[in-house]
């Protein structure tokens, strides 16, 4: 991946709604070149989609929590993600190293909904849970700092 492609990714990560013409002007390249580069980055998997960022509070999801999961039976098959993927309140699921096996991020309207969701998670995946409720968010959804050079220089 060259420096121009990293710059393009940075611009898109900060604001994918900008027009191609605006970004091309900022980058000092023709918009046709920018369009080709973006299509190439999409094809190679460096860009895997575009989405709207919702204000969760504005849509009624006022309680965000991180829930750490530990299997009750360590000898059982590790299929926690598969057991949880249909639960729509779960925004993301990460396998982690440490005391717990997984962490999920959940969004619900109110604490009573969180209580019901935790019971659902425990039953669906046969796990113990430890929950951290978010009180406020200082920042999130920041674009990643891209390395100067990567092992994906073939992109």
TrEMBL record:
CC terms in the record's Gene Ontology section: cytosol
Listed GO MF terms: sequence-specific DNA binding
Record-linked Pfam families: AsnC_trans_reg, HTH_24
Keywords: DNA-binding, Transcription, Transcription regulation
GO terms classed as biological process: response to amino acid
SUPFAM superfamilies: Dimeric alpha+beta barrel (SSF54909), Winged helix' DNA-binding domain (SSF46785)
Limits of the HTH asnC-type domain: 1-62
Name assigned to this protein: Unannotated protein
